[in-house]
Amino acid sequence: MKKTKIKLFEAFAGIGSQYYALKRFKNIEVEVSGISEWDIKALNAYRAVHYPDIKDELIDPKIARKELESKDFSNDGVTKYDLNKLSDNQIVKLYNTDKIVKNYGSVQNLSKNLIKGNHKKVNIFVYSFPCQDLATGGKGLGMKKGSGTRSGLLWELENYLNQLNKLNITPDILLLENVRTIYSPTHRKDLNQWLDFLRSIGYNQNIELLLNALDYGLPQNRNRAFIISVNKRLVVDGNKLKSSIYDSKTPIDKVNINDFVKIGYDAAEEKEAWLNRTPSREEMWRINKKNLRLNPYLGTITCNLDRSNNAGMFKYRNSYRLLTMREAFSLMGFSTEVYMELKRLDYSYRQLNKLIGNSIAINVLEVIFKNILKFVSF
Ligand SMILES: C[S@@+](CC[C@H](N)C(=O)[O-])C[C@H]1O[C@@H](n2cnc3c(N)ncnc32)[C@H](O)[C@@H]1O
User: Which of 27, 177, 203, 275 qualifies as a FRET site for 184, CA 20 to 30 Å off?
Assistant: First the structure.
């Protein structure tokens, strides 16, 4: 039987949880039309997760530099990086990675690229924009249009989607993911302004969801906002789609924390888990009071697992320890193979922690996509 081809675009791609989840469906063929990501460390990780076997091709470093000139990159995820600081070898590597993962660069570069006429209509467009300014722990800078905040990068997509609309190639489905505070009274006005914009370009159904990884087979309390926007050219019963997603829950007593939290693979991992006991860590463990024996699931995997109030510090077999990165990837639904590929990048605990804390729980994405595929004919 001929498989349905699903074209995917990942804006704010990170390590590509979206592609990872969609690839699990055997009855479809997934084609990534492109991604938008500006963090070089995330791009390397995306390549390691999705294209581990593709080798670099030889290219003149001068040509590679010229090609990359029109895109913005960052090395710390915050500031723009000056590519002149990269050696010829590093520039060739970045050129290859950028090409292999089909990166369009920063979301701020998207419209610029579009003028070149190289964008195709996609079926699913996912945008999980930065949450720092919306999260409870952040500075509360918000996502107001024109605010210049990191969460405000959402509005960079307005121009892009407007242009796609003029060309009649708006995506069939848009999927937003972010922290649940996006629904709070503080951010509601900005969110509504965004949804009004989407309606103005033809997304007349915007299905708001609040989904917890705990309800979908992962022992992690991760409650996230997802909004599915359906283009009016598709006939979809949005209410049925929504209730079917909520009906697809897995009871938590069917999930065994010991399938996710276990150590002892090698000495380095043991070292990662059993931290030296310093007064500040003693304090964190005391505040967190997390005892897996009493409560068989962990808190949200954030980007700072070794800080106070975070899921990483917990009591395990009568002693206190830190969640390892292998465990963190597993609690987000990624396989051990993915973790092993990423390990080869030689990233620090903090760097891997940032990538996984930013990502999306695979099991939740799987349920969303399963139901989109069930209720939408592309
Ligand atoms: C919340 S994370 C999304 C992670 C992703 N969903 C995943 O599966 O890993 C936000 C991502 O947006 C990226 N980002 C930040 N500013 C960006 C920009 N101007 N253009 C493109 N990506 C950007 C960050 O580097 C980060 O990877």
Answer: 203
